Design the sequence.
């Protein structure tokens, strides 16, 4: 049934045209989901799939105007245990229409990161989503939010991983399956790996075993559904037989920021002073003291971090069977990577 809120239009004349949304985002959460938000995986409804922001034409326009240094094209293998098969592909000189064609015909994933910073309509959309969430969920008070638009091929996958910030996945086009695993559970993610993820010194990918799936909550997401889970819960995604468009949002609360500070502090004490198994408690005098010492050490340059980044090894080619070719590979008369 059509959501009545989808019929509403923003009529406030003070909203600049570039921020004006033709659709008012609407979130439907059951009473149980409101109570459990952030505490367990859940799936609920939204209406973003009715917005004009996610049509092919809108995506092409977005890609053509998007700052390319914040756009990541990634391809992947089929073995869930080999996240090293995830490869970054260059895309300079590839138009928005060609990128979309590569996604439709190949097997890749476009991460349009911080789309909220590059486009005022997405910023407005995410703001409205979180305003609604804060109004509906008792005690939920985000201090910041951000978003990445995900456009991906049929059968593409995202390997088993955990994100530092709390997140939600708003599914808009196509069908995808998501597996969500228990959060902060040493059987699924070692504490030290999560510390490294918070510090940004390792990729989010984690060692994976098929047996983990017995503990997973699995959702098949349709357009108009969104899923969320406890902060840091490992998860993985496989697209079904269609091109997928989803908006991934991350939100920050006072508590989530404390968690990040405590994990980064614990990593500092582990790597610099050899102190292991420090408490991960996010409140109390010990947490406060550790984070203050870490902040001071940071200022003094005692915790230098080498931020981990993917190195490109492929190039997007909309005419290649997989949508990408290896850098240096020659296809026809064009030398890829030039
Ligand atoms: Fe994720």
Sequence:
């Amino acid at each position: 049934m059509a959501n009545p809120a989808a019929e509403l239009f923003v009529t406030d004349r003070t909203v600049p045209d570039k921020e004006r949304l033709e659709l008012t985002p609407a979130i439907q959460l059951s009473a149980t989901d409101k109570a459990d938000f952030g505490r367990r995986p859940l799936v609920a409804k939204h209406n973003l799939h009715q917005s004009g922001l996610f049509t092919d034409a809108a995506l092409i326009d977005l890609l053509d105007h998007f700052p390319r240094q914040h756009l990541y094209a990634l391809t992947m293998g089929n073995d869930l245990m080999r996240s090293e098969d995830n490869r970054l592909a260059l895309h300079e000189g590839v138009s928005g229409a060609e990128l979309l064609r590569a996604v439709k015909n190949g097997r890749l994933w476009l991460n349009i990161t911080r789309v909220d910073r590059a486009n005022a309509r997405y910023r407005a959309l995410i703001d409205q989503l979180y305003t609604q969430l804060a109004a509906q969920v008792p005690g939920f008070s985000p201090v910041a939010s951000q978003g990445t638009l995900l456009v991906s091929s049929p059968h593409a996958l995202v390997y088993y991983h955990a994100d530092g910030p709390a997140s939600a996945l708003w599914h808009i086009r196509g069908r995808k399956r998501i597996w969500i695993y228990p959060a902060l559970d040493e059987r699924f993610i070692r504490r030290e790996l999560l510390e490294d993820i918070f510090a940004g010194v390792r990729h989010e990918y984690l060692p994976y075993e098929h047996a983990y799936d017995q503990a997973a909550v699995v959702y098949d997401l349709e357009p108009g559904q969104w899923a969320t889970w406890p902060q840091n819960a490992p998860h993985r995604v496989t697209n079904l037989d269609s091109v997928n468009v989803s908006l991934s949002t991350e939100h920050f609360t006072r508590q989530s920021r404390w968690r990040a500070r405590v994990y980064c502090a614990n990593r500092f004490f582990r790597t610099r002073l050899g102190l292991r198994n420090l408490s991960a408690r996010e409140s109390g005098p010990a947490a406060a003291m550790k984070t203050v010492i870490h902040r001071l050490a940071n200022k003094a340059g005692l915790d230098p971090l080498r931020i981990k980044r993917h190195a490109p090894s492929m190039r997007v080619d909309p005419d290649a069977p997989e949508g990408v070719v290896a850098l240096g590979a020659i296809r026809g008369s064009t030398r890829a990577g030039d």
Summary: The radius of gyration is 21 Å. The CA atoms of residues 59 and 73 lie 15 Å apart. The chain has a mean pLDDT of 89.
